[in-house]
Design a protein that fits this description.
The complex is a heterodimer of chains A (about 250) and B (about 425).
Chain A: E1 2-11, E2 14-24, E3 29-33, H1 40-48, E4 53-62, E5 65-66, H2 72-77, E6 80-83, E7 90-94, H3 95-109, H4 117-130, E8 141-142, H5 148-162, E9 166-170, H6 178-191, E10 197-202, E11 215-220, E12 223-228, H7 230-239, H8 241-249
Helix pairs in contact in A: 5-6
Chain B: H1 6-15, H2 22-35, H3 51-62, H4 75-87, E1 91-96, E2 99-100, H5 102-110, E3 116-120, H6 135-142, E4 148-152, E5 162-168, E6 175-184, E7 189-198, E8 204-214, E9 219-227, E10 232-242, E11 247-254, E12 259-268, E13 274-283, E14 288-297, E15 302-312, E16 317-326, E17 333-343, E18 349-358, E19 363-372, H7 376-383, H8 389-407, H9 411-429
Parallel strand pairs in B: 1-5, 4-6, 5-7, 6-8, 7-9, 8-10, 9-11, 10-12, 11-13, 12-14, 13-15, 14-16, 15-17, 16-18, 17-19
Antiparallel strand pairs in B: 1-2, 3-4
Helix pairs in contact in B: 1-2, 2-6, 7-8, 8-9
The chains are: A alpha/beta (about 250), B alpha/beta (about 425).
Chain lengths: ~250, ~425
């Protein structure tokens, strides 16, 4: 589904990604781990299409097509979802309005009928219940005044509403207490399906206790230096990131 | 800078028929002769050049027909007039080219039973109050054909908001000057709408003065909507006096005009008064919109707020100067001024200055201003949710304007204002701003 080859990207004059290659197939859950500054978030932002990041070499293909050619909104409508590490507060734009507009943009693109206000509310309430979210959040500004945990739940709510084919979740576990972490993990697990892929970008192994990945990759200095199964995450937890760096240098 | 031809002004004043307003005109003329129009050297007019308005006035005054403007509106203005009349359910009094349109006077009579009394300023009462030191209001008084006095009785029972619609439609460049004096008596509660439309591709200049006295315990909700043709200039003054425990809840919306200057002056003369001013200006191309507000707290406790927001594109130039003056002894004053601007182009320009002058000890005052572009991270966030760039831009600009829209009083105006705002934002954000 997602095929990244020798991806190099810069922000300003700084090279952040230095030849990332990664293949993610439908039905798989991948975890990308790595120390701060290793390029994890940059990789997520490049997949979503942020124009601060310039791709200088390599390719990203999604379902065989050049993903980098598409505008961020086109990628979203094609089923690519980015869960933000720092969800943006947008005062004055209603959360329900955004959710419904996003859902209908996707449905129009897929030649499905738009949902009306009633269908939308029914769906949203159901999903919010699963995530243990107060329906009152629908009537607030997007992420406006939300706590860290509320913002992350709101990202997961958007994901479960939009039902993307490829979900990239950037540090979705950071700043969550254990209840929020479980709610978020339940939301992610509910999304697992044979025709969907999930990429978890995370600094800590904690989330992986609740969402079991099929593959774990370690990113260091803009490159994947090690790949393995879920036991790699446990080894990392035990030995720390220095262990991977040393192994990479050796 | 060319200034106004005083001899032409005097000749025009002398051409007006002798009536109860004659002494007022002469007195105002004497004051205006001292000042002329304010130039950009004047601190309060630093960013707004009245040159084109002066040239137009000189040409118009030189034309002897100038003293007899039409009091009807032409077919081409009908659409603009109808749009307002159909969009806002109010009791409308229409001013055509500065003068009360005869056919709407009948309506004024019917409002009598609701406790709203209207009469022409020339019909006698003391008119000394319309003279002031301000050059633009003196110019208005000197050349005033007539004006309207509105008395709101304590028992006033309003079925619909009271609307004043100003329509200018003279075919050649013309000057229109209107004046309304509104006295809101004790405990009265009233909704007032002031709307401006104009048609015609030639330049026009309107110089309007509204005086508003709000007596003890009375409340006024006031919405001003300006959507003039893009070749037209306007200077408007609202002079409000707030007595004990009175409330003024004011919101102003500027959509059109080539050069627009709004002066709002609020005098808080007795304790317990609340003055809230809100403003939204949406400007594109070469539009110039200048909002000056000044609240004088002579006594406390009293509350004043001024919050203005602007969205600018093209080569628009806007000005905000909001001042709260807390005079000696006005303890218990609570005053805030803020101005926020969204610049959608590199060539748009805003000069903003929220000001506080405090001469009392026990006060709570705050002021602030921001100028910025659209939040890039918010734009990206929306796009990653499948919203295309144009729509995301529109959503964010609309959200920015939303605070003022929701602050506007008078529900009967809301749908109209929202629709106008959306249409104007659509023009500004898609780049084909007129």
């Amino acid at each position: 589904m997602l095929e990244i080859k020798n991806l190099n990207a810069t922000v300003g004059d700084t090279a952040i990604l230095n030849g990332v290659s990664l293949t993610v197939n439908a039905g798989e859950v991948h975890a990308i781990m790595g120390p701060n500054g290793s390029g994890k978030s940059t990789l997520a932002q490049v997949i979503a299409g942020h124009d601060d990041y310039i791709v200088t070499n390599g390719s990203v293909r999604y379902d065989g097509r050049d993903l980098l050619e598409l505008a961020p909104e086109e990628r979203a409508r094609e089923g690519v979802f980015l869960g933000f590490q720092y969800p943006v507060e947008i005062p004055g734009v209603n959360n329900a309005y955004l959710l419904k507009a996003a859902l209908n943009a996707r449905r129009r693109h897929d030649n499905e009928g738009e949902v009306d206000a009633f269908e939308f509310l029914q769906l949203a309430r159901e999903k919010m219940k699963d995530l243990d979210m107060d329906p009152a959040f629908l009537n607030r500004g997007v992420n406006e005044g939300f706590s860290g945990g509320e913002k992350k739940r709101n990202e997961i709510l958007q994901m479960v509403m939009l039902e993307p084919r490829l979900a990239v979740l950037d540090e979705t576990d950071s700043g969550l207490d254990i209840d929020a972490l479980k709610a978020v993990a339940n939301g992610i697990n509910a999304m697992r399906s044979p025709d969907r892929a999930i990429v978890l970008v995370t600094h800590y192994q904690r989330l992986l206790d609740y969402v079991e990945p099929d593959f774990v990759h370690v990113l260091s200095e803009g490159k994947i230096v090690r790949s393995g199964d879920k036991t790699l995450a446990l080894q990392l937890e035990e030995k720390g990131y220095d262990w991977v760096r040393e192994a990479a240098d050796a | 800078m060319t200034n106004i031809a005083q001899d032409l002004v005097e000749a025009a004043v002398n051409r007006l028929p002798v009536d109860a307003l004659t002494p007022v005109r002469k007195a105002a003329l004497a004051r205006f002769a001292q000042s002329g129009f304010p130039s950009v050297k004047h601190e309060d007019w630093k960013y707004t050049n009245l040159g084109p308005a002066i040239e137009l006035s000189n040409t118009w005054l030189a034309n002897s027909a100038a003293v007899a403007p039409r009091t009807t509106w032409t077919a081409d203005a009908k659409q603009a007039v109808d749009e307002i009349l159909e969009g806002i359910d109010a009791s409308w009094i229409i001013f055509a080219n500065g003068n009360v349109a005869l056919e709407t006077l009948a309506k004024a009579e019917s409002l009598e039973s609701q406790g709203i009394h209207m009469s022409k300023l020339s019909n006698g009462r003391s008119n000394a109050a319309i003279i002031s030191d301000d050059p633009m209001t003196s110019f208005n008084a000197a050349l005033l054909q007539d004006g309207l006095h509105v008395g709101i009785r304590p028992s006033a029972y309003q079925v619909k908001p009271l609307g004043f619609l100003f329509v200018d439609n003279s075919l050649s460049g013309s000057l229109s000057q209107a004046r309304i004096v509104i006295d809101v008596e004790n405990e009265a509660d009233i909704d007032i709408i002031e709307a401006h439309v104009s048609v015609g591709s030639d330049a026009q200049f309107a110089n309007l003065v509204i005086q508003l006295s709000i007596e003890k315990g009375a409340r006024v909700a006031y919405v001003r909507i300006q959507d003039r043709a893009d070749t037209h200039m306007q200077v408007g003054s609202l002079i409000a006096r707030l007595h004990q425990d009175s409330v003024l809840d004011y919101a102003s919306f500027d959509f059109g005009g080539s050069m627009v200057r709004n002066d709002v002056a609020v005098d808080i003369t007795q304790p317990g008064a609340i003055g809230k001013l809100h403003g939204l200006y949406l400007a594109g191309t070469n539009q110039h919109i200048d909002n000056h507000s000044r609240v004088d707290h002579h006594v406390g406790p009293a509350v004043s707020r001024a919050e203005y927001r602007g969205i600018l594109n093209g080569r628009a130039h806007c000005v905000f100067n909001g001042k709260a003056v807390v005079h000696k002894g006005a303890d218990g004053t609570d005053a805030e001024q803020s101005n926020h601007n969204l610049l959608l182009s590199k060539t748009a320009e805003i000069d903003t200055k929220p000001e506080l002058e405090i001469y009392a000890d026990d006060v709570k005052c705050a002021h602030g201003a921001t100028v910025g572009q659209l939040d890039k991270s918010a734009l990206f966030y929306l796009r990653t949710r499948g919203i295309d760039q144009d729509e995301a831009t529109q959503l964010l600009t609309r959200a920015f304007a939303g605070r003022i829209l929701t602050a506007a009083p008078i529900e009967a105006t809301h749908a109209y204002i929202v629709q106008k705002t959306d249409r104007r934002l659509d023009e500004l954000t898609t780049g084909d701003s007129p």
